[in-house]
Amino acid sequence: MDTFRKYITPGTEADAKQPDWGISILNVGHYIHPAGKKYPDAVHPDAYFFDYSKGRVLSEYQLVYIASGTGTFEAEFIGKVDVQPGTIFFLYPGIWHRFKPDEKNGWSEYWVGFGGSYANHLMKQDCFSAEHPLIYMGFNAEFINIFIQLIDTIKFDGMGSNQLAGCLTIQLLGLVYASALLKLQSSSRKAQIINNIKYSIHENLNSDISPEKLAEKHNVSYAWFRKSFKEITGQSPGQYQLNLKIQKAAKMLLETDLGISDIAYQNGFESEYYFSRLFKSKMSLSPSRYRKEFLNRQVNNSI
């Protein structure tokens, strides 16, 4: 698709003839910024041009979709983040921001700037916030097609074009909203599966069930399970299982008279030596020293 950009001045005679539907389109564009060229290019109007070192503040909403290429984005509530193809970021009125493509890659961007009472209502929905302005959509043919219709509508500037453009922008926002909800549901589903697996680990702590068996039992691949488990808990499945065993063994050392070899065996460790080495690495004390210090504290407290 050819590059295109148009900036619409609210309150002009042509604009005044069209009824207010609560969402006004202020600018629309598609631009392919080549590698090695300074960003933004000089064609930006003064009100939109910005020096990257200083950033920019707008008085409108903008939806920006990076169709290809890579870059960075930074705003008032978030630090600098990498932007990959398929990323959408929102610019909010009165919120400082800056962004640019990587010099060696450039990028292709679609954008629409908008405002109005209904726009304010839409942008207050749960999935949209200035604190979390980036949403990853990936490649979406329907989304691109609507953007192309939006650009064509503004380009040919027929009767009711702003209202039609407003409807198309609402469709874009609806697709972004649906994409964000699906991502949340996916995350929720992922957390549910991992929580079920964590429960299985607790239930099978003595049997030393392998992570591979746990994944198979819950109908997920081991690669997905390992990655998702660490993402949610911050630990690998093996480390999580080991930490639980060490915690249980520590409790048994303090609450029972069982020998260390028996405690090691009951918690699925292959030998007393192996158990003692792992216990010391986690608790900074050997099992016998851990038990002795606890007993000494009890004696001292009773005096």
Automatic annotation (TrEMBL):
Stored SMART domains: HTH_ARAC
PROSITE patterns: HTH_ARAC_FAMILY_1 (PS00041), HTH_ARAC_FAMILY_2 (PS01124)
Keywords for the protein's UniProt record, in alphabetical order: DNA-binding, Transcription, Transcription regulation
Family matches, as InterPro entries: AraC-bd, Homeodomain-like_sf, HTH-like, HTH_AraC, HTH_AraC-typ_CS, RmlC-like_jellyroll, Tscrpt_reg_AraC-type_HTH
Domain of life: Bacteria
Any one GO molecular function term: DNA-binding transcription factor activity
One Pfam family it belongs to: HTH_18
Name recorded for this polypeptide: AraC family transcriptional regulator
Annotated source species: Pedobacter roseus
Lineage: Bacteria, Pseudomonadati, Bacteroidota, Sphingobacteriia, Sphingobacteriales
